[in-house]
Design the sequence.
C-alpha cells in the first residue's frame, strides 16, 4: 500500500516569505510523486511531478520540490510567496510500473498568504 | 482544448431523489476518473475507466452509486436514492495513456451536490 501524509492542514505566510509545505510518503516500491493545486471553486491542476529523473523538480509558478528517499519526503517550496499562491495544495503518490494503479492524495494543506 | 467539462456545477436536491452527474473528458484521453471531495474524507477515488471499461470501482460507497461510460466522450455518475451524507463536490478527471502510473490527471471544475 502507498500513502502520503501532509503535515499541517493550514499554513500561513507573509507575502514575500518562503513557502514550505510538507509531504511524507509511504511506498513499498519506488514511487511517482506529485503536487497538485486547487484554487477556490476549481478542480485540481498539476503543479509538478517526480518520476525518477532529477530529485529536484521544478514546477509552474516558481514552485519546486525535492525528492529525498532517506527522509521519505517530497516537500514543496517557493522562495517568495505571492498573494495569488493562496490555494489548497495536495501531495499525491502513484506506484511506478504496472497497470491499473491508483493515484492516492493527501488530505491537503490550505495556504494563506498575508500582506 | 476545452478541458474536462462537468455538469451541473451545482445541484440541490431532496433526500430520496435521483441525482445524475455528467462528464465530458478531454478528447483523446483514455482514462476517466470520478472523485469525491468532502471536508471529512478529503479526495476519494470512486471509480475509473480505461477505454470506456470500468477498471476499479472499489471506491464506490454502496449500491446507490453507479457510473457508466457509454462512449469515449461521456460519462455519468448516478446516485439513487440520494442521502444527505452524499453531499460533496464530485470531480471528474481524465488522462492520456499511462495515467494510472504517471498520475497526470486533468480535472473538471466539479459538481457541488447538496442533498437536503
Sequence:
Amino acid at each position: 500500500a502507498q500513502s502520503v501524509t501532509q503535515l499541517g492542514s493550514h499554513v500561513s505566510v507573509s507575502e514575500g516569505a518562503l513557502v514550505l509545505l510538507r509531504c511524507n510518503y509511504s511506498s513499498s516500491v519506488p514511487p511517482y510523486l506529485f503536487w497538485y493545486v486547487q484554487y477556490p471553486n476549481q478542480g485540481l491542476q498539476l503543479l509538478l511531478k517526480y518520476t525518477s529523473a532529477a530529485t529536484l523538480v521544478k514546477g509552474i509558478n516558481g514552485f519546486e520540490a525535492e525528492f529525498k528517499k532517506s527522509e521519505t519526503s517530497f516537500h514543496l517550496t517557493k522562495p517568495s510567496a505571492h498573494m495569488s499562491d493562496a490555494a489548497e495544495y495536495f501531495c499525491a503518490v502513484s506506484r511506478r510500473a504496472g497497470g491499473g494503479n491508483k493515484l492516492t492524495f493527501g488530505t491537503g494543506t490550505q495556504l494563506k498568504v498575508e500582506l | 482544448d476545452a478541458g474536462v467539462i462537468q455538469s451541473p456545477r451545482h445541484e440541490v436536491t431532496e433526500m430520496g431523489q435521483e441525482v445524475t452527474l455528467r462528464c465530458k473528458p478531454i478528447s483523446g484521453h483514455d482514462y476517466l476518473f470520478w472523485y469525491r471531495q468532502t471536508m471529512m474524507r478529503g479526495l476519494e477515488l470512486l471509480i475509473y475507466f480505461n477505454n470506456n471499461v470500468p477498471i476499479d470501482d472499489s471506491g464506490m460507497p454502496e449500491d446507490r452509486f453507479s457510473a457508466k461510460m457509454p462512449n469515449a466522450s461521456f460519462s455519468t455518475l448516478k446516485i439513487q436514492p440520494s442521502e444527505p451524507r452524499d453531499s460533496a463536490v464530485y470531480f471528474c478527471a481524465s488522462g492520456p495513456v499511462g495515467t494510472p502510473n504517471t498520475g497526470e490527471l486533468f480535472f473538471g471544475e466539479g459538481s457541488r451536490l447538496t442533498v437536503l
Summary: The two ends of chain B are 36 Å apart (CA to CA).
